[in-house]
């Protein structure tokens, strides 16, 4: 066939474009000239294709006008059309960017060798064999294997999703019962391994590799919920990151590796191209949010501290330890300051240069902390401390980013990164680090805390932490790792349905949750949880097993962490019986505690007594330590006046006052303090939020100011914020060695105690443990290593352990706040390390109340009959000098007092601003000796007064006496108060219930917020009731009294006994 004159030579394959355009735009026949012999007739197929393309383009543009027509038809504003158009354009832009990024990444991977050669100006030659990278090695052979295996991996993924994932999704929710995977294709682009790095010098039983992976694939996964005609899916994605692979343990049999662990050291970067209903996730705003949520899900599965474990041999030991190993260590990060930051704030369109409002983000893996904002400062001082868990060394990095806080978008000021291996090597690293990407430096102090299984180190760590000024949280003394394995025989739901159990684990205000296991009462979780502990001796682990709705509790467990301190290697690995559950319901857990120990030449834990001058308030002899001065040990050679002191390293938190810029807390806190130089009371105010609390200011008071003056009551200006003040009342309570004022102190404490505060202390107990003798030897032991524990109520103190002696000399002191000296007692146990209890002693504090100067100083015989201890117990009554009690106190001589001059500092009650005579007048009417005898139904003792400053009616229910006993057993009384004429729950108050007594003591305080004139129009209905029976909700009325507040003097606050009557009568006093 003869070629027409208009046709040129046939194009070669090299001249064809690699990415041809749409054939509908330029059909091949459109460029051909007509044959001269054909009579000038155009080619039919080409003209038809061009016409079809024009019609298609016109139809698309016509479809755009349909929303405009519909909006006009229904009478909507044109704004809806514009909003929809803007939404579509934003979605189209995000989609185009993702597709462009995918095409560029694919082209880079396809033509990597050519692009690299062009970059190195080496034409199309390959890299020479002598070119290598010392850290990361190329692994093209591994990429070829992955490419060969990739189709079969796709078949496995299709089978896994269809047979495992889809049934799990369908069972998780009734609305997803028709969920299915309609298409699973991994595509033709396999995952590529850019480089491999092997870390030498690690443990001999493991092999550690870092794989730099890059996946730019044409994966396509479609899902459908047929019931709702809902389709969604993924078509193309990018994933880039460093995957760490650990082969351990190495064994002597095939396959030589027991298991493979995989995880990302840092969050990988992810970009997903959505299809179907998930196209909506590409809308601006939702796009970044959806990618963040997906990355959070991946991080919860494959980013440290989470990892994927694949066992290669059956019956592998310590699977839980391999899946969630203990951290390598803890780094305490002190974010101290920054300097020389750049100025980002501009005024008057940039004509005036301001400063910056810097804050810092501190990251290690998935652990992120944000500092407070320092306004208008280029050299900010933060002084904040954070603690992070380190799981992998080397590999993990500490990253600090500094930003300028702005209303719209925060400006970047710089970042620094540091490998945690350098902190491990140095133990303590204190330096200024330059900021990359900006100007300035940031000052960090980094401390590596080792994890020890030695409980003996805990006392040293606690003593050290008491001297560490740390915010926003106190320093930790230990960590707890809980391996949650499984549960058995959990109770069924109503209708004998299988529950969906999950577990909540809580320590104080930190709560973590496990995943939910569906439709089983014998769930297997195999999860690990990690907690920081401030004081393991007093903290508890609370475990709640619940249904996934959180409404049904399947079982509970409360475990004092002190049990771990006596366990071997600080590990408990056992079944735990659940309470409030079935008879055979139990939970299997492994609990591991580790003490956080800073092992550095800079740290010197005090072990020997110092000189007497070490306790001088004005002396300045700081001891170098972690970040603050370390407290010296109390120096004693014989019992003297300088014992019974502790360092005030405690923190308290008030309740939340909602939606108020002028809050009133009315809370009282008490703490024992010593004259350690430099101590400060710091109060920080925050705004409670769901995500992160906002900082509202702080103020500081040097304790020497309060110790010298004895009293402080003033408004303090809040620092680090533009405005705000805080009303603080501080009072030094000096212990007095006389019991004459105890009853008055107890009465005043009941008057000034608020509902939000704990019961106030009435006395201070100081114990000096000198030594013990003749301790018994247990069978099979040649030597003793004794220590002593002192316990009063919920507080305890443990002495040091003296090795290999039956006559230890401890020379230690401890102090306790006493709330009810008449009923509390000191419990002392002498124990041997590994041998159990050697002897015990119970000393009722009532014996101290009748002793001379409230002091006992002698040998005490232990209950075992063998051994005795020499100790001194001194009780001091805490009398307020600003409550009016001193007007009735008996005279005493300061020179005769053998108490320590170390005071107790009490954050005094802020609502006691009335004059002293008011309290004196209240006390003069208390318990008059001319009391009338009780009536036939008994009496109730009440105190009523109106607190005008707070506009509150206050009532204290002290107790009852001579109640009537209707049955064989004494009643279980409680008191109910109702402010008539309202009978709703808003005015109803109720005391706690006392068991089987005719003379209960309550001492509980109640408040009603209402004006005085309204209070005087009310009546207070006081009813004493008892439960009728265990199974009945009925209440037995033991007696009642109605008080007409218009006839009651509410200005005095007098405690009186009121006769109880039946329903028809009113009571009288």
In short:
With 1069 residues, the protein is of the alpha+beta class.
State the helical fraction: 10-25%
Please tell me what the overall shape is: globular
What does the main sheet amount to? 8 strands, antiparallel
Question: Care to count the β-strands?
Answer: 48
Strand content: 35-45%
Helix/strand structural class: alpha+beta
Output the number of helix runs: 15
The average pLDDT score comes to 75
As residue ranges, the low-confidence spans are 1-43, 121-126, 601-648, 884-930
- Distance separating the two termini: 129 Å
Radius of gyration: 38 Å
Present the secondary structure layout.
Blueprint: H1 44-64, H2 66-73, H3 78-110, H4 112-119, H5 140-172, E1 179-185, E2 192-198, E3 207-225, E4 230-247, E5 259-264, E6 269-276, H6 286-302, E7 308-311, H7 319-323, E8 329-339, E9 346-347, E10 352-353, E11 358-364, E12 367-370, E13 381-390, E14 397-404, E15 411-419, H8 420-426, E16 428-434, E17 441-452, H9 457-465, E18 478-488, E19 501-507, E20 510-513, E21 524-533, E22 540-547, E23 553-560, H10 562-565, E24 571-577, E25 586-597, E26 669-672, E27 680-687, E28 694-702, H11 703-709, E29 711-717, E30 725-733, E31 735-736, H12 742-752, E32 763-773, E33 786-792, E34 795-798, E35 809-818, E36 825-832, E37 836-844, H13 845-849, E38 855-861, E39 868-878, E40 904-907, H14 916-924, E41 939-947, E42 952-961, E43 973-980, E44 988-990, E45 1001-1009, H15 1012-1015, E46 1019-1027, E47 1035-1044, E48 1055-1059
Antiparallel strand pairs: 1-3, 2-3, 3-4, 4-5, 4-6, 5-7, 8-13, 8-17, 9-10, 11-12, 11-14, 14-15, 16-17, 17-25, 18-21, 18-25, 19-20, 19-22, 22-23, 24-25, 26-40, 27-28, 29-30, 30-40, 31-39, 32-35, 32-39, 33-34, 33-36, 36-37, 38-39, 41-42, 41-48, 42-45, 43-44, 43-46, 46-47
